[in-house]
Amino acid sequence: MLMLGGFLYRNNLLPQAIREERLSQMLGGRLWIAESGFLLAVLGGSLLLYRLVIVWLLRDIGKKVHSGSGGQNYAVRRFEKLPASDYTFFLMTLLLPRLALDYSSITNFAVSLLMIVFIIAVFVKTDTIATCPLFFVSGYRVFKGTISANSREEEAADPELRREVVLLVRGKDLDLGEKYRGEALKGNVYVVGRIRTTIG
Q: Which one, of 31, 23, 39, lies nearest residue 99 by Cα?
């Protein structure tokens, strides 16, 4: 939305009442007020749209996990928050094309859009899409962790039974003393929900 808004603004494609010249006249030359308001409106709309999209995408898998009709039971053996550098890398990779290009031409706009689509495709393909900070906007928390569907005795005999994954969890932190229901969202990214049964 930020790219589209910038493209419409730079090319005077917005409705007549909110074009640059009209706003400059209304605000006595203080165009920065209108530009700040426009930027805040676009950012607010983008966050709302992202939240709705993420909630919609995770709706079915979330319902299955929390109702127990999908996935399987797992014990969380270890978990930690993702480092801030993961989020910084994700944001900078997406934001730099937006900040570096001039959106006054349709060519620049199309090139920037294609770059972002390609970058997102790479993130999805390499299972790093979970570092998208927008999961927080939708109420999910993201952790790196180790899960297992087996007992500790079986794991001791075969350590390969444990999986290193990224966990998407609604609400509170994970608890190593509880069992979870989980289902793979993409690759090693799992949506998990708490089961009210204490484990040993």
A: 39
Q: How would you label 23-52 residue by residue, b for 16+ Cβ within 10 Å and e otherwise?
A: beeeeeeeeeebeeebeeebeeebeeebbe
Q: What is the mean pLDDT of the chain?
A: 75
Name the phi and psi angles at 97, rounded to 5. Answer: -60, -35
List Cβ neighbours of 14 (8 Å cut-off, separation of 6 or more).
8
Q: If DSSP states are collapsed to H, E and C, what string results for the chain?
A: CHHHHHHHHHCCCCCHHHCHHHHHHHCCCCHHHHHHHHHHHHHHHHHHHHHHHHHHHHHHHHHHHHHCCCCEEEEEEEEEECCHHHHHHHHHHHHHHHHHCCCCCHHHHHHHHHHHHHHHHHHHHCCCHHHCCHHHHCCEEEEEEEEECCCHHHHHHCHHHCEEEEEEEECCCCCCCEEEEEEEEECCEEEEEEEEEECC
Predicted model pTM: 0.63
pLDDT digits (tens, 9 = 90+) for 102-130: 666 777 777 777 877 787 777 767 666 66
The Cα–Cα gap between 112 and 99 comes to 10
pLDDT band at 6, cuts 50/70/90? low
> Distance between alpha carbon 136 and the CA centroid of its chain, in Å?
7
